[in-house]
Amino acid sequence: MTVPLTLASASPRRKELLSQLWPSFAVIPADIDETPHVGEQPRAHVTRLAQEKALTVSALHPHTLVLAADTIVVARGEILGKPENDQDAFTMLGLLSGQEHQVMTAISVAFTDKVFSQCVETQVWFRPLSNADITEYWATGEPADKAGAYGIQGLGGRFVERINGSYSAVVGLPLVETEHLLQQAQQTLVKQYSGELGERGIID
Ligand SMILES: Cc1cn([C@H]2C[C@H](O)[C@@H](COP(=O)(O)OP(=O)(O)OP(=O)(O)O)O2)c(=O)[nH]c1=O
Predict the structure, then answer these.
(1) CA of 32 to the centre of ligand 1 (A)
(2) Where do the catalytic residues lie (predicted)?
(3) Is the beta carbon of 171 within 6 A of some atom in ligand 1?
(4) What is the position in ligand 1's atom list of the atom closest to the CA of 68?
């Protein structure tokens, strides 16, 4: 028995990763304000965004499970989202150069107003970067749509000395935790609402 699933994301990387876990799903991006609240801690921030994305799409599509995620980089306690311009990217990559940072990816699964969430944290170590490294990397276009201004799965991979944690979480969707959360959400829903879901044609 499988409940239909919607991925609330515009990220091609999340779509590709989810297709490793789930045979078919709809894709409906969620457009939300990703600005941190004043004084908001990184874990609370990333988890709130994943929940808001899932609940926004779930409100419009109440007949499916809705999965959403959010990824941030945290360097010396500072939250790094996507760079707004080249200066921003240079500042971010400068902070990461020769240092350890954390990548936090939160995942949320919503069904109507119920939401299940988890935050996965991975340590990443960068080699020292020269100004030329950063300038050349920015010119490739890769950093522009990525948290912390790099992609471990692309050209940015050559800056990464090692990681401790989940590679797929750094790319945007932690596979082990997502599979577990989807199973948990599905089981809970089927247990609570099996009669109603059947009547509404959501499950067989
Ligand atoms: C650190 C890192 C981030 N990223 C990506 C993952 C996310 O797509 C992006 C962070 O931005 P997010 O706001 O998490 O996601 P998004 O805007 O791309 O997609 P959506 O909100 O619609 O789901 O950075 C990489 O692809 N590789 C990396 O190594």
Answers:
(1) 14
(2) 70 (proton acceptor)
(3) yes
(4) 23
Alpha carbon distance 108, 177 (integer Å): 11
Its pTM stands at: 0.94
- Tens-digit pLDDT profile for residues 112-132: 888 999 999 999 999 999 999
- 146 is a domain residue: yes
Q: How far apart are CA 45 and CA 48, in angstroms?
A: 5
The domain that holds 59 is classified in CATH as 3.90.950.10
Ligand 1 within 6 A of CB of 148? yes
Catalytic annotation on 70? yes
Q: Give a yes or no: residue 14 inside a domain.
A: yes
Per residue in 37-85, pLDDT (tens digit) is: 999 999 999 999 999 999 999 999 888 999 999 999 999 999 999 999 9
Q: Whose CA is nearest to atom 21 of ligand 1?
A: 9
The residue segments making up the domain with residue 73 are: 5-199
- Asked if residue 11 is part of any domain, the answer here is yes
Name every residue whose Cβ is closer than 8 Å to that of residue 63 and which is 6 or more positions away in sequence.
4, 200, 202
Under 8 Å between Cβ of 19 and 67: no
Is residue 204 assigned to a domain? no
The conformational region for residue 118 under phi > 0 = left, psi -120 to 50 = alpha, else beta, is: beta
Q: What's the gap in Å between 146 CA and the centre of ligand 1?
A: 5
Q: Are 72 and 104 in contact (CB under 8 A)?
A: yes
Q: How close is the Cα of 80 to the center of ligand 1, in Å?
A: 11
Based on the structure, what is the number of domains in the chain? 1
